[in-house]
Specification:
By secondary structure, the chain is an all-alpha fold. It is built from 19 helices and no strands. Helix 3 packs parallel to helix 5 and helix 14 runs antiparallel to helix 15.
């Protein structure tokens, strides 16, 4: 799904959810009116009020129950809130329900019919929706006022019957007084002014929805630009990573396969860690991707190490080993120089942490800074396990490969000294997958 479609669906979801809540609020207010009427605080005929409130409640509960059953009970995807027809259901039901409420309360309550157009304003503008709102207004206003004349709260300004006890005028008497002349008087005295008011509100709704549409279009355009820029930056970043990895491989013939394998180990470990409460909020998919993409750069500092040391098949002297250890700091410097200006601070920080700290040890005996415990960045702690495990299981000119299971046992022995004990406990859970991957890689490379 592209960004535009996702934004449209999100806009629909939010608008439908807002209107569902609005219908619940209206229903609660109507129930309060019913209670007040039963207490004789309001004077609406009870035989009119009770069934009207029941009918409106039944109507308003339709979209609420559809949403609750579909999304909450059945948990179906996608949400019903994304269905285009759902907004029409909400708008039509709101007109019927509010119209009934206005009819039974009083003809003054006809202004409640301004509520459905405001609800319609939550949606992105479409001509069809405006036409529906306009037609609904033209129909519902006279129905509400004429309905109030026959069934609602008695109002002498509307009924125009000269009797002393106006509150006790029953429905038959209202029908008896409903002459054509009186209906016409109601039309131009009461219906026409309210038509004008609510149609004006409809027009304002069109302006609001058009503004919302323009804002949404601008947001979608901006999102597309951001998406394209991120894709461009990611391609550039991956190209730089690929070029650096190629240079590293050229300097050290054993590093090419090492880069691929350690990236796989890092991915396997991080994704297993994500399953556990301690890490599930830290190791987001985005952060795991950053660790995976940064892993090939963990030895980038070796580019700065002399060939005489880097390619030495024998044991290094203490001085040579001290120089070799500098590759982690050199790597941090190189990543700082190359990636700090790419406007991706999160990737830069992850790559920097891995390059400079993947030789640190849990007990503080590592290098270059002698970091201890959780002072070591999490990405570097993961990388350390992957780096050592591949080094143990790989053939080098100065050593033979150790069998995968034996190498795994060595890794476990480093729990709490070389490696983070919590991560090792999780790595043990994927022992079979790691060993299987090592053996499969050797088989594919004819190393068995």
């Amino acid at each position: 799904m592209n960004t535009r479609e996702e934004l449209l669906k999100k806009s629909n979801r939010e608008a439908n959810k807002y209107n569902i809540y609005a219908m619940i609020v209206i229903l609660i207010l109507l129930v309060i009116c019913e209670v007040l009427n039963e207490l004789d605080i309001f004077l609406v005929p009870k035989l009119s009020m009770r069934p009207t409130v029941g009918a409106v409640a039944a109507l308003f509960l339709i979209p609420v129950l559809i949403y609750y059953i579909h999304d909450k009970l059945l948990k179906k995807e996608p949400t019903i809130l994304e269905w285009n027809g759902f907004k029409l259901v909400i708008i039509i039901i709101s007109y019927i329900g509010v119209g009934l409420a206005a009819m039974v309360l009083s003809f003054h309550a006809t202004l409640l019919l301004a509520v459905p157009p405001i609800m319609a304003a939550q949606y992105r503008n479409k001509r069809k929706l405006f036409i529906i709102v306009l037609i609904a207004t033209v129909i519902s206003v006279p129905l509400a006022i004429y309905g109030s004349y026959f069934f609602g709260l008695v109002d002498k300004n509307l009924v125009l019957i000269e009797v002393e006890d106006i509150e006790n005028i029953d429905v038959p008497k209202r029908f008896e007084s409903a002459t054509a002349e009186r209906m016409f008087v109601i039309l131009y005295h009461h219906i026409l002014p309210r038509w004008i008011c609510i149609i004006l509100i409809d027009v304002l709704v069109v302006g609001i929805t058009q503004r919302n549409a323009r804002m949404l279009d601008s947001q979608m355009e901006l999102s597309e630009q951001v998406k394209h820029e991120m894709e461009r930056r990611t391609k550039m970043q991956n190209r730089v990573i690929g070029d650096l990895a190629a240079v590293i491989e050229t300097r050290d013939a054993g590093t090419g396969g090492h880069i691929i394998r350690t990236k796989t180990y890092v991915s396997m470990i991080a994704r297993e860690m994500k399953k556990y409460p301690k890490y599930k909020d830290i190791l987001t998919d985005e952060y795991i991707n950053q660790i995976e993409n940064s892993a090939p750069l963990h030895d980038v500092g070796k580019i700065a190490i002399r060939d005489a040391i880097l390619l030495n098949p024998g044991k290094l002297t203490d001085e040579e080993f001290d120089e070799m250890k500098k590759h982690s700091e050199k790597g941090g410097e190189m990543i700082n120089n190359i990636f700090s200006n790419l406007d991706d601070d999160e990737f830069f920080r992850t790559a920097y942490d891995i390059a400079i700290a993947h030789h640190e040890k849990w007990d503080g005996s590592g290098y270059p800074k002698g970091l201890k415990g959780e002072e070591i960045p999490l990405s570097a702690r993961i990388m350390a396990i992957a780096d050592v495990y591949d080094a143990l299981t790989s053939q080098r000119c100065y050593k033979n490969a150790i069998p995968a299971e034996e190498a795994f046992n060595i890794i476990v022995e480093g729990r709490g000294t070389h490696f983070d004990p919590d991560i090792i406990d999780i790595v043990i859970k994927i022992k079979d997958e790691l060993i299987s991957y090592v053996n499969e890689s050797k088989k594919n490379n004819n190393e068995e």
